[in-house]
Amino acid sequence: MLTLQKPSNLFAGLFDVYLLKVAIHQPNYFPWLGYFIKMHLADVFVFHDFVPLSDRSYTKRCKIKAPEGSKVNEKWLSLTLDTSNEKMISRIPFKALKNTLDEHLRHIQASYYSAPFFKEVFSGLSAQMDDWKQSENLATLNIKIISYIANKLDIYRECSRSSHFKIEATKDLHNLTLVKEFNGSSYLSGMGAKSYQQEEIYSASNIKLIYVESLQYLEKHPLSSRFNPTHSVLDALFNLGWSNVETIIKESQFLIE
Length: 257
Prior knowledge:
The protein is α/β, with parallel strands linked by helices. It has one domain. It has 8 helices and 8 strands, in the order ββαβββαααβαβαβαα. It has helices at 33-41, 98-112, 118-132, 138-152, 171-181, 199-204, 214-220, 233-250; strands at 3-4, 20-25, 44-47, 61-65, 74-78, 158-161, 184-190, 208-212. The strands form 2 sheets. It has a 6-stranded parallel β-sheet, with helices on both faces. The longest helix has 18 residues, at 233-250. The radius of gyration is 18 Å and the shape is globular.
């Protein structure tokens, strides 16, 4: 089960006997399938929630298939947030957006009603709505959504939140410090960071930097014709079902070997 713990309790006593792979990612809103691949490949997953929300962030939006008959192929589900008093993901209030979740659920239903695994997936999402609506802030909402999906996909990982730490460093140094907090031996990074990441600071700290090429893997997968890898994981779930998506994730182990 995906377990959220504060760092003082995380993997107590195991740091000296196990080489840990650490992944760090903002808690996105219904993230893409590659998000869960990286979570599966890691030993420790840190939700980077102590960071300002950017305008085009996937922390507040996701992309799904547009309903049949639409003039466009895809649709954005976006959360309109009040960031006038607080911009940190872990502190942006969510209470005023409870009706937005119901609206998004209706959009999801309209887009995937005819999908092969609609009933199997949609009933579970609907059952979680009351709990998700109780979220106090954006980070908590997204972590609840991610945790539900991860658990259904049989991803068993210990997780923490960057807001649990007092780290003054910024950007790369912040991630490096988080990896060190868990005595990590490897840092799993997305390909998007390769163009700007300071790779030398990891090698200088004897930490292996591993880029996870999830998108390339998904695009070449035999089942790729049945879903859109760049959309929210919802697209894969409705079109393939929980079992097939779980298999895709578990078959990705070679990406870090």
